[in-house]
Design a protein that fits this description.
The protein contains 15 helices and four strands. It has one domain. A hairpin with a 2-residue loop joins strand 2 and strand 3. The chain is mostly helical and 334 residues long. The chain has a two-stranded antiparallel sheet. The chain has a two-stranded antiparallel ribbon with strand order 2-3. Helix 5 runs antiparallel to helix 11 and helix 12 packs across helix 13.
């Protein structure tokens, strides 16, 4: 690689000075998550928190795509649904061992997203958004109409085996356990995404996002790094879908619907898609708002629209962006 190319993409900044604080924060967050069942004894609250974490994982997958590739996806639910459906169908049909079904449910969406990413990386703007929407809805139609697969629009319940990876699988349907599992996965995922963003591959993907022609001119591949980002994003969505399907013991075509992708995108925007942590924060706030506004179900679309307008006008960088700006102002004051 030329000296110019080496200078254009700085050396990875994931040294001890940068990763040390991240690791410390992750350890504290994991400890707090492990203590959640004792700090919050209500099973209902733990169950709601578990669902909020599933949403946070999905929103994080959408936000990561925006952050690293500068692309908006309306088809992220396709990978969320694939994660749940692959696991549920393989178990219900007895096609493979539970552990292998678990791994397949993660590997299949990741591989599909990487292959699609090789194409999607060459398309930008509205065309990209519409293409992801079309792909997502194609998966929805398959799940909705193919009754032999998983009972079509009725959805399908499935039973977990007695043990998975040597562990009592019934614990995965206990909110006091699943909330810890889901929280731990979310924390580790956020840590991994932060490290990736500061790695050489992450910086190349960001360079392609900012100016693909310039990145190509200085010798960087402009297809593989964005495709890897698509794959990582899909893996996160698949994990969320797999966890939700495992927790509920149920899969349905709604897991693929574009409205789920749209909700995840709104969560990312509300929290701040320009930040690793933003979408997760947005998902929690969105979930709380949805639960609070449940009594006004008929006005829910208007409430969501109003919140989105306010956030766009008042907090264009989302909640995390607003908090960051406030923190910087405080530090500047004598």
């Amino acid at each position: 690689m030329s000296a110019l190319a080496q200078n254009e993409i700085a050396a990875p900044r994931s040294d001890l000075r940068r990763t040390g604080p991240l690791l410390a924060i992750a350890v504290v967050a994991l400890a707090l998550g492990a203590a959640a069942p004792w700090l919050v004894p209500s099973q209902l609250t733990l169950s709601l928190a578990t669902q909020a974490i599933f949403d946070a994982l999905l929103a994080t997958s959408v936000g990561f795509l925006v952050l690293q590739n500068g692309r908006v996806s309306f088809g992220q639910a396709a990978f969320f649904g694939l994660g749940g459906y692959a696991f549920g169908v393989l178990l219900a049909r007895g096609l493979m061992a539970p552990e292998l079904a678990f791994l397949t449910a993660l590997a299949l969406p990741t591989l599909i997203a990487f292959l699609l990413g090789l194409v999607f990386a060459r398309i930008a703007g509205v065309a990209h958004a519409m293409l992801t929407l079309a792909v997502g809805q194609a998966f929805y139609e398959i799940a909705f109409r193919w009754r032999e697969l998983a009972k079509g629009d009725d959805g399908m319940s499935f039973n977990l085996p007695s043990r998975i990876f040597g562990l009592d699988s019934s614990l995965l349907q206990d909110p006091s356990v699943m909330v810890v599992v889901a929280w731990s996965i979310l924390v580790l995922a956020l840590l991994g995404l932060a490290l990736f963003a500061n790695s050489r591959m992450g910086q190349i993907a960001a360079a392609v996002r900012d100016n693909a022609e310039r990145a190509r001119f200085i010798g960087h591949d402009t297809t593989i790094p964005p495709a890897i980002v698509y794959a990582i994003s899909a893996l996160l969505a698949a994990i969320a879908g797999l966890l939700q399907a495992t927790y509920n013991g149920y899969i349905a075509p709604q897991m693929f619907h574009w409205s789920l992708s749209g909700s995840a995108l709104i969560m990312a925007v509300v929290g701040g898609a320009q930040f690793i942590l933003g979408p997760a924060i947005g998902a929690v706030c969105f979930f709380i708002l949805k639960d609070f506004a449940g009594r006004f179900a008929e006005y829910w679309p208007a409430i969501v629209g109003s919140v989105l307008v306010v956030v766009t006008l008042v907090m264009p960088q989302g909640i995390v962006g607003l908090l960051k700006a406030g923190w910087l102002r405080m530090r500047r004051q004598p």
